[in-house]
Design a protein that fits this description.
By secondary structure, the protein is α+β, with helices and mostly antiparallel strands. It folds into four domains: 88 residues, Uridine Diphospho-n-acetylenolpyruvylglucosamine Reductase, domain 2 (2-Layer Sandwich), CATH 3.30.43; 117 residues, Uridine Diphospho-n-acetylenolpyruvylglucosamine Reductase, domain 3; 108 residues, Alpha-Beta Plaits; 79 residues, 2-Layer Sandwich (Alpha-Beta Plaits), CATH 3.30.70.2740. Helices cover 38% and strands 19% of the residues. The protein is built from 16 helices and 19 strands. The strands form four sheets. Strands 12, 13, 14, 15, 16, 17, 18 and 19 form an eight-stranded antiparallel sheet that branches. It has a five-stranded antiparallel sheet with strand order 5-6-10-8-9. Strands 1-2-4-3 form a four-stranded mixed sheet. A hairpin with a 5-residue loop joins strand 8 and strand 9. The protein is globular, with a radius of gyration of 22 Å. The two termini are 19 Å apart. 50% of the residues are buried.
Length: 460
């Protein structure tokens, strides 16, 4: 990008969008960071398109002038994927927030990328359907697809990878393509849908999504169970999954996380490692599932289930779980959260958590909490660091890298759901090797030859 090309591009974008193009400092600051610890960087301008055609036109202009482009949803990511490290133009899709169609008979829907998961579920509530992917934050569905998000329901319903039927994508040169149809399966050509899911805005801008919906269960029941140590809780999870019991949610929290939640959400959970569980199905199947899990937990010295009855009480429990990261940060006001995100085969989960706990206990005095979607082998340690202390950042980074390498050695991944962004680019190379990265880069080069799409992310 030449020094002269950016002002020309911004002028053309202003002619296209009018007041929906901003170069104001406060707007740029808002779009210069996400929820991560990464250093913010300001875009040169922010666009607010309202249609896929406008997104395509923005990309045509930026491509013609070699201007970097960064898509932006709600900014709730935790790996720095929306930080515009090369400046350029941020495309904020929050104004593209219409549910374009719901087809109850097909159990699917079409949405614009700025629709959030809570907005969609409110919209479809009267149909008896729901969209299950729940990463905690009320993220935009376009952003959730771009980062291959999952969350608390993934153990039963899968991730965004399994629940996006197809996409409409604006390519870097402004072409609009469909990656597939609404059929539940297809053997036609390359799987373009999965190519863009998880691409973190480096290949194009997602402008429409066709999503799979599910029938709302006849019965939903939630419970908590506590253990004297984390190892027993994890082993109870492993046996539950290996037994094939179809739990909807099974979340692990350690005693420090429980304490943080109590203080932040005004709850009174015991200060012990615990599991938050939810069961979906018919009244009879929910009872059978809960009895079976209860027996497993008892065998690992778990407490009797504390049942959470009533929708309001269940919502309060899960809201406390979703606020766990904020609760952790409140333990050290002013600190930033360094979030880790490994996922391992379920048979190695206990080993990975045990070794990580021992590593953290022996290596640092940083406050840390453990939580995770352990039903699918995914867990997080959140380490609190002083943003003005480089040594603390380095401690957290080293611990996070050792944790990721441990997961890779066990057949796992360095990121179960947060993505690569800025923070895990070196680890991606460790996970896929030089040849794997070379194939990814060849795809990037073919689709984005000018390198304008979210430069500096995923790859070093």
């Amino acid at each position: 990008m030449s020094a002269a090309s950016l002002p020309t591009a911004i002028e053309k974008l202003g002619n296209l969008l009018g007041k929906r193009l901003s170069t104001g400092e406060s707007v740029r600051e808002h779009h210069g960071r996400d929820e991560s610890w990464h250093t913010p960087a300001l875009p040169d301008a922010v666009c607010f398109p309202e249609s896929k055609e406008e997104v395509a036109s923005v990309l045509q202009i930026c491509s013609a002038h070699g201007v970097p482009v960064v898509p932006f949803g709600t900014g709730t990511g935790v790996e720095g994927a929306v930080v515009p490290t090369a400046g350029g133009v941020c495309i904020d899709v929050s104004g593209m927030n219409e549910v374009l169609g719901v087809r109850p008979e097909d159990m699917d829907c079409t949405v614009q990328p700025g629709v959030t998961r809570k907005q969609l579920n409110t919209y479809i509530r009267d149909t008896g359907l729901f969209f299950p992917i729940d990463p905690g934050a009320d993220a935009s569905l376009g952003g959730m697809a771009a980062t291959r998000a999952s969350g608390t329901n993934a153990v039963r319903y899968g991730t965004m990878r399994e629940n996006v039927l197809s996409l409409t994508v604006a390519l870097p040169d402004g072409r609009l393509i469909s990656t597939g149809r609404r059929a539940k399966k297809s053997a036609a050509g390359y799987d373009l849908t999965r190519l863009f899911i998880g691409s973190e805005g480096t290949l194009g801008v997602i402008v429409e999504l066709n999503l799979r919906l599910y029938g709302r269960p006849e019965a939903m029941s939630a419970a908590r169970v506590y253990f004297d140590d984390v190892a027993d809780a994890v082993n109870a999870v492993i046996e539950t999954i290996q037994t094939g019991i179809p739990v909807a949610r099974i979340e692990l929290l350690d005693e420090i996380q429980m304490d943080a939640i109590n203080k932040f959400s005004k709850t009174d959970f015991p200060l012990k490692p615990g599991l938050f569980l939810e069961f979906h199905g018919s009244n009879a199947s929910v009872r059978e599932q809960s009895e079976a899990v209860g027996e497993i937990c008892e065998a690992y010295n778990g407490s009797a289930f504390e049942w959470t009855t009533g929708e309001e009480e269940q919502n309060k429990m899960w809201a406390a779980r979703h606020d766990a990261a904020y609760a952790t940060m409140a333990l050290r006001p002013g600190a930033r959260a360094y979030a880790t995100d490994v996922c391992v085969p379920i048979s190695r989960l206990a080993d990975c958590i045990r070794e990580t706990r021992e590593d953290i206990a022996s290596s640092t005095d940083l406050i840390s909490t453990l939580l995770g979607h352990v039903g699918d082998g995914n867990f997080h340690y959140v380490l609190l660091v002083d943003p003005n202390d480089p040594e603390e950042y380095e401690q957290a980074k080293v611990l996070g890298e050792r944790m990721a390498m441990r997961a890779l050695e066990m057949g796992g991944t360095c990121t179960g759901e947060h993505g690569i962004g800025l923070g895990k680019r070196e680890l991606l190379e460790k996970e896929f090797g030089e040849d794997g990265i070379a194939v990814m880069l060849s795809i990037k080069q073919a689709i984005d030859p000018k390198g304008i799409m979210n430069p500096g992310k995923i790859f070093l």
